[in-house]
Each structure stands twice: as C-alpha cells, then as structure tokens.
Design a protein that fits this description.
There is one protein chain. 47% of the residues lie in helices and 18% in strands. It has a two-stranded antiparallel ribbon. Strand 1 and strand 2 form a beta hairpin. The longest helix is centred in the C-terminal third of the chain and has 25 residues. The relative contact order is 0.12.
C-alpha cells in the first residue's frame, strides 16, 4: 500500500468534506475563483490560503470558518515539501520522480540554452493538468509555468 501524506487533522477534514459533497478540486476552484491545482495545494497544506479563500472554502464545504482560520489563518505558513519519503511509493508520484531522474538533466540543459544560467521559479509559478483525448488512450498533459530567475553575480 502506498504511503499516505502526513496531513493535519484539519486537512483530513477538508478531504472528507470534499468527498461528502462529491466535489472535485476543479469544482471547488470554480467556486472560490482559483485553479484546481492551487486548491489541491491548500488541501495538502502546501499553500497559504487568504482570509477570503478560507471564507469561500468554508461556505463551499460547509465547515466552520473559525476552524479553518484557527489552523490556516494569518499565522499559518506552510511547511512545504516533506509530505513523503523519497523515492515515493505511490505509482503516480513515482512517475514524476522517474521523469526527473530520466529527463531532469535534459530539461535543465534546454532551459539553460534558451534562458541562460538560472532556475525556474516554483514561487512565481502555476501548474495545469489537462486531459487530452487520444484513440490510443487518453493522455495526461502537465504544464509547469514558472518565471525564469537568473543567478546573480557579485
């Protein structure tokens, strides 16, 4: 069995409320004005929701706003990463790990050729997942959109 991420009791309640209401991350995102990947990031404790987002999530999921703001309010700052061990045991997550193992250096080389010496931001960043229908089997299309950050010289 795949290792489960380390979630707080409140984050677990978010998932339970989502399941009880039969909502997708896309459904919730549309109701709160955010992308589905960002919403999933909130559920996994990897994003810092605003007060307005907590109010909207409270309404959408039927959870008391006070419970959300008590744990995820202005004082909350995500402890990003650390949800799993490496290499991951979940098959989907392992494929991401495998993709970086196989294509990480080629992608890095192409980024350097096109942009120079620097990195792609994971802060000024967005991600999208699209389903592409294909007669040979549906395809997963993942778009990672990060600002290029050149290294400084001093």
């Amino acid at each position: 069995m795949a290792e489960q991420p380390k979630l707080s009791s409140l984050h677990t309640r978010l998932f339970k409320a989502k399941a009880a209401k039969k909502l997708s991350f896309e459904d919730i995102g549309k109701k709160i004005g955010r992308d589905e990947v960002y919403v999933a990031s909130i559920f996994y404790g990897q994003a810092k929701p605003s007060k307005e987002e907590l109010q909207k999530i409270s309404l959408v999921l039927g959870l008391p706003e006070s419970h959300l703001t008590e744990e995820l309010g202005e004082h909350f700052y995500p402890d990003r990463g650390g949800l799993m061990s490496l290499p991951p045991t979940d098959p989907v997550l392992y494929r991401f790990y495998e993709m970086i193992q196989v294509f990480g250096y080629p992608l890095k080389a192409v980024i350097h050729e096109k942009f120079g010496d620097g990195i792609m931001s994971a802060i000024d960043f967005s991600a999208k997942v699209e389903k592409v229908e294909n007669p040979k089997g549906d395809r997963v299309k993942i778009i990672l959109d990060g600002k290029f950050l050149p290294y400084n010289k001093w």
